[in-house]
Amino acid sequence: MADLHVGVAWLGPPPPRLGLWPGIAYPEVMCGRFTITHPNEALAALFDAVPGNDLPVGPNFNVCPTNPVAVVTSDGGQRRLRAMRWGFIPSWYKAPNDGPLIINARSDTVATKPAFKAAIRERRCIVPASGFYEWSEGEKGARLPWYFTRADGLPMALAGVWQRWGDMDTVAIVSTEAGPGMAEIHHREPVVLEPADWPLWLGEAGHGAAVLMRASKAGVLTKPFRVGVAVNSNRASGPALIEPVAA
């Protein structure tokens, strides 16, 4: 399992500060919360996908690891918007908590790590998000949340890989080195796909999707703004979580 630890980058502030998963050893972390405020019907229309009947009800201003999330997949050119657990479960796990909670996969190792190497070839997907949170460190180690959205106001299409485990579909978000919109806050960021790239990532347009695992260009993401520390709790909810506060 040590090999798996090396190949995984984590999204979010250290869970012990958030009251999440005590006792788990977490390696390097990055943005572990996101929002989804766009209705499922709008997401299905945007991605030209057939919506499932078990999609999580929104809006959700504090999507946390292990929550169900809406995910876009494509099979034979037919796109579906389906519910998955945010937290990829490798095929060899005997139980969902049989090893580390895997919510993110590094772009530089996703093709070689045992947990992901089949999924990156065969089961790429898109995780829609309205925005995501990232944390910087303040005085005395305080975790200070920042909020990112697309500059054009559209939902983000986060690159993901998914895995069927038992009777449950599970997903991880792909991360890459930070670009100009993120570098001042953190050195990694989720891969945000542009609409023209969706067919290639979903396996509808041949091979070569690896080139898409790159940072967003300047201007794609909004300049982030500080939000209140309430979102540091996995129990927090509501639109007040994304209201700006003084940095």
Explain how this protein is built:
- The protein has 247 residues and is mainly β.
- The protein has a single domain (2-242), classed as Alpha-Beta Complex (hypothetical protein yedk fold).
- The protein contains 5 helices and 15 strands.
- It has helices at 2-6, 15-18, 40-46, 117-122, 198-201; strands at residues 10-11, 29-30, 33-36, 50-51, 60-63, 68-75, 78-86, 104-106, 124-129, 131-137, 143-148, 156-165, 168-177, 188-190, 225-226.
- Helix 2 links the parallel strand 1 (10-11) and strand 2.
- The longest helix is centred in the N-terminal third of the chain and has 7 residues, at 40-46.
Descriptive keywords:
single chain, 247 residues, mainly beta, hypothetical protein yedk fold, five-stranded antiparallel sheet, 15 strands, 32% strand, disordered N terminus
Outline of the structure:
With 247 residues, this protein is mainly β. It has helices at 2-6, 15-18, 40-46, 117-122, 198-201; strands spanning 10-11, 29-30, 33-36, 50-51, 60-63, 68-75, 78-86, 104-106, 124-129, 131-137, 143-148, 156-165, 168-177, 188-190, 225-226.
Instruction: Please indicate the percent range of residues in DSSP E strands (runs of 2 or more).
Output: 25-35%
- Could you state the order of secondary-structure elements as H and E? HEHEEHEEEEEHEEEEEEHE
CATH topology-level name: hypothetical protein yedk fold
* Quaternary state of the chains: single chain
Envelope shape: globular
* Poorly predicted sequence stretches spanning 5 or more consecutive residues: 1-29
Share of residues in helices:
10-25%
- Assigned CATH architecture: Alpha-Beta Complex
Largest sheet: 8 strands, mixed
CATH superfamily: SOS response associated peptidase-like
Radius of gyration: 17 Å
| Mean model confidence by pLDDT | 87
Total count of strands: 15
- Secondary-structure-derived class: mainly beta
* Highest-level CATH class: Alpha Beta
| Number of domain modules | 1
Q: How far from one another are the termini?
A: 40 Å
Q: So how many helices?
A: 5
